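Aim 2 progress. For Glucosylceramidase, the working sequence is reproduced below.
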Amino acid sequence: MKRQILSTLQLILIISIFSNTEQLEFWLTDPDAKVFFQQQPSILPNTNYKAADNIITINANEKYQTIDGFGYTLTGGSALHLHNLDNTLRAQILQELFNTDKNNIGVSYLRISIGASDLDEKVFSYNDLSPGETDVNMTRFDLGYDRLYLIPILKEILAINPNIKLMGSPWSPPIWMKSNKNSIGGTLLAEYYDAYALYLVRYIEEMKKEGITIDAITIQNEPLHPGNNPSLLMIATVQAQFIKQSLGPIFRKHSINTKIIVYDHNADHPDYPVTIFKDHDAKQYVDGSAFHLYAGSIDALSTVHEQFPDKNLYFTEQWVGAPGNLKGDLVWHVKNLIVGATRNWARTVLEWNVAANSKLEPHTPGGCTQCLGALTIDGNQILSPRNPAYYIIAHAAKFVRPNSIRIGSNIVSGLPNVAFQRDNDMKKVLIVVNENHSGKQTFQIQCDDKIYNTSLNGGSVGTYIC
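Predicted structure tokens for this construct:
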């Protein structure tokens, strides 16, 4: 009798395990229903296997690019706000952002500024000199200001996730290297190409001494926008010349393995990276190109891929303008970036930026005054609910881990979507947004040989795992 009971219990357990493997895990953000990135009841397969017209079919046989990660720019201002939290609250929010357990979002990629961005409390470089001075050998190079906030926060993040990837982007070289001797605009003087290349080498080396590995750098943030503070004008032919004459050879000389990524600006000028890739002497040093979407169309990334499929693509910045509109921002960003950028070969999607306060500070004089962070931090308080960029990234970062592969899924009208397959457990992840702000959409998902019925309210986003 006892043996029979054990067998029955074992049978129930086997049935339960088998049933769970067929269930579709479902996470939802629905602003109208005040559901903010919350797990929903799992969805059981449709037992009659009848497919509807509006069915999204996941096709793991169609394989595209490998994913490096999803995340944010950790500006100096973001680091300042995080650093100023008390130890307990800071530990809690860093776990929430960078740990993948439970309801944390598991950010896997960060972009940081090399020197100041426009969301620092002041303009600085790592080699600021008095007027008329130069230091071509970088004897006075000093990470300086970054040691106050950015480096301590990065070390705490790396303690949570040692595998997080970091991209560095400069907003400007030291002003003594520039034509106008000013943090705003100007060009990099040719006589300082080698000095600036060495400056970037020293940055990578000094960060490494701090235990911080820079996986990639872009050469210049928004090189066609010299009006920000800091900023620099660097046209494509100049960037190519700088790479082949100085940066590439000096990286090799110093055995720097950090990836070199070109452009880092809007999708309206895919000709910029193409110009560099057509220069064989420059191309050999370059891993790929990076894009923003303040102008142009996201499918411009595919035009670069089609011409140079051996070069990687990255999406590195998009802001949410204050005060933010969760429903509208969620739809636009998920459709164009989480779905659009990855469907057009991007290995990363990064939002700008991690945190600001309610006054949208800090920023440099002339820097962005309306950039809404993923978090609003006022003193020792983190406001809830989180801001749109938090949820935009959460729907991808938690589930689409680094080394996942984008796989095939068909387009259904009104339901932009993208699918991935993870490499650790081979599970498939489908992200879907209902771009119709007012209408509920009922649809089906086919994963392997199972069909699932589901729906999304207008303006909501679902992540499904099977």
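The mean pLDDT is 94. This observation will guide construct design in the next reporting period.
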